[in-house]
């Protein structure tokens, strides 16, 4: 395929959307996958038809994939490892008498 | 430096840490995945056709609804898989181009014709059965998006095989003509289903690397044997006969021995000479080409709407 | 007895409409213009098969004599079918399918809105459930009609052709068949003149947004509701019913 053809297909294709679904009231929206749609309205309807055929959802969010910004996997060590030695942030870090209730 | 990346990568795989789209990966891993996932997606989409042509002929309303829902699920599965492949940097349109130009393959099983209603049963029981056997291990594939897509696919597929078995059981216990129809379908679909697991291990050059990368968890022959063992038991409930006179229990191996697979037929169908290769591809191309004006119109309208909103805001 | 037969006919009319348009839409499965829409139209077809089953089951129950949803769907002939001509027409291109869906769903929307208050509790219950589905069908089909009407030059031309093709079949939906007239007088049926204005208004507003003009032709085809069909229905039934007819009494 030459360059021209690649551009042609790329421009003709409906944009890709990331789909987030709230499976039931009270839970947060969770990423379930993606799909193509010409606009946001169609993206929501396509998500309804594609991702909620088995009553998987009560609410849908759609975000055009190009608007998602992601952290760089190469930065993982610098970003996430420093949290590793902060055990005092977790409740189990503290030694308290067994008699103590409701805490 | 490259070697170092490669070692880190293999180390993650060995530790069962999933690879995600933006992680570094060897180019060959990416290419292998694109090929495998897109082939899988194409199989779902082409696989809609042999069953799809019975939706309008389903023998009662319950069956009609079930079959339509099943074939529709296959469209969904194709969609999930194309999406997983898209995370690797290939567009769905490009994958379609590869399918339509004959460059990409899909499962050869769908190049066989569906002649009677019993074929809906045989496809559900055997073809979906074989597919599930292939797919369950893929839920643990090392590539995250593929594994997640497969979890969804497997969850939805669970009714597909059951409805097929139910069709065959009903036919087998039905009138004489129905029973004959069921046996005939089994006769035609058995060997192509056994071939679905691909060439024998010693003729499957990609297997070793794919196992090392945990894209694949079991070899073709392992899965094929498991399939035959299970079907040979299940067929007893159906009251039908598997068309293999060499099929017999082997005390030593703890498996069923089976007859010789006609690999010549297998390669002929792979190379495009199956009964329906041309027709299936033509049908897909036609749908795609006839849909072009629809897709273009939606794009044009979305563009107009955006511009109008922008004008209004200004 | 007369009354019961009329209720059966009325119910069968509703069932046949749903079955035939569901059958037509299901022909798209595997052939849609894009995967997402293939799935969408199959969902609509499934909704229709569900509606058809609900109505047929009720008709079968009223009829007795070992009638079932399947004997009613699979063993009646063309002249017994009571669906509108509109739903039996071939799909045509995506534009024609969309436009038919929009015409019919809009009709069903206003129809079921009233039918859910029917004196017949069973019909009311089925209508209430179906209305939710139809509400979505109207939304989906009207958005597509607008998109295609106001999309590209080609899509507009195709929509104009579709309007030409389908318009003369829209009148029948509002023309009372005998069983509909009786159903109204007996209190469980819908007065079709009461929903015609709402239908007109909705069509007009969507056509405006779609930049399509409403046709002025006045002549309307009719007959389907009374069993006088186009040639197309025979082929639909021939395909749909052949297994049941070739294997009388068999279980599937």
Structure in a nutshell:
The complex is a heterotrimer of chains A (103), B (314) and C (252). Chain B has 314 residues and is mainly α.
Molecular structure report:
- The complex is a heterotrimer of chains A (103), B (314) and C (252).
- In chain A, 26% of the residues lie in helices and 19% in strands.
- By secondary structure, chain A is an alpha+beta fold.
- The relative contact order of chain A is 0.15.
- Chain B is mainly α and 314 residues long.
- A two-stranded antiparallel sheet of chain B has the order 1-2.
- In chain B, α2 crosses α11 (277-290).
- The mean pLDDT of chain B is 95.
- By secondary structure, chain C is mostly helical.
- Chain C has one domain (4-246): Ferritin, core subunit, four-helix bundle (Ferritin), CATH 1.20.1260.
- Chain C has 10 helices and no strands.
- Chain C has helices spanning 2-26, 35-63, 69-74, 85-88, 94-115, 121-149, 153-166, 178-185, 193-209, 232-246.
- In chain C, α1 packs antiparallel against α2 (35-63).
- The radius of gyration of chain C is 18 Å and the shape is globular.
- The mean pLDDT of chain C is 97.
- Classes of the chains: A alpha+beta (103), B mainly alpha (314), C mainly alpha (252).
- Chains in contact: A-B, A-C, B-C.
- Chains B and C meet through α2, α3, α6, α11 and α12 of B and α1, α2, α3, α6 and α7 of C.
Mean pLDDT over the residues of chain B: 95
Helix and strand element order of chain A? HEEHEH
Low-confidence stretches of chain B: none
For the largest beta-sheet of chain A, the strand count, sense and barrel status come to: 3 strands, antiparallel
Q: Count of helical segments of chain A?
A: 3
Give the C-alpha Rg of chain A.
Answer: 22 Å
Q: Largest chain interface and its two residue counts?
A: B-C, 47 and 50 residues
Backbone structural class of chain B: mainly alpha
User: Which geometry of chain B do the CA atoms define?
Assistant: globular
- What is the total tally of β strands of chain A? 3
Unreliable sequence segments of chain A: 1-10
Name the CATH superfamily assignment of the domain at 3-69 in chain A.
Phenylacetic acid degradation B
Strand order of the largest sheet of chain B: 1-2
Query: Count of DSSP E strands of chain B?
Result: 2
